[in-house]
Amino acid sequence: MRVSKKEKAIAIARILDELYPEVPVPLSHKDPYTLLVAVILSARCTDVKVNQVTPYLFKKAHTAKAMAGLDVGIIKEIIKPCGLSPAKSKNIKEMSRILTEQYGGKVPETFAELEALPGVGHKTASVVMAQAFGVPAFPVDTHIHRLARRWGLSDGKNVEKTEADLKKLFPEDTWNKLHLQIIYFGREYCPARGHVKQACPICSRYGVSE
User: Fold this and answer.
1) Which one of 49, 65, 97, 153 has the largest count of C-beta atoms within 10 Å of its C-beta?
2) Residue 134, class by beta-carbon neighbours within 10 Å (0-12 exposed, 13-18 middle, 19+ buried)?
């Protein structure tokens, strides 16, 4: 019997709730500012590596004002293990300067203001809005983009389309938790490589594409 996308989404959400009733934020942080920095560092880098690096960075500077005062070379050297350190270090320093001068050191609480900051794209802004401020958002990273296509919930043409498709399928009040559940599930059961469809609680029932 053919299952609609909506029915499939409901079933998938039920499986994810059973497996991950609680989902901690994978990036270690103390406040919206340290979360924002961590998310910027996570671009093309694992959360594990970011969590290894940020204690050293935040020991040097854990506020926007302190970070803005650091030499960009110091930031670059500390964050080198995260990759893309020349661009990330410049963005973190400039972003911190703007926060200090324009927002009193606080992280703004709107998508428009966040996305205007250096190094902050829509996905980064979505993570901060969802995890720091509790605003409904559905950050789509490469894992979620891949799984949405694999599960037949989106055609996977681009992350913007995937985000829009997922927002239509799932209730708004589940978005913030659900995007984390999908990330955890992808890492544990549904990796890009070495995926065993028969052993995957979702793909064994609903997966349509590799």
Assistant:
1) 153
2) exposed
Q: Which residues of the chain have pLDDT under 50?
A: none
**Total number of residues shown for the chain:** 210
Q: Catalytic: which of 8, 76, 93, 123?
A: 123
Active site residue 141: yes
CATH classification for the domain delimited by 5-24+138-206, as one of 3.90.1300.10, 1.10.1670.10, 3.40.50.150, 1.10.10.60: 1.10.1670.10
For the question of residue 31 being annotated catalytic, the response is: no
Q: Which CATH architecture has domain 32-131?
A: Orthogonal Bundle (1.10)
pTM of the model: 0.92
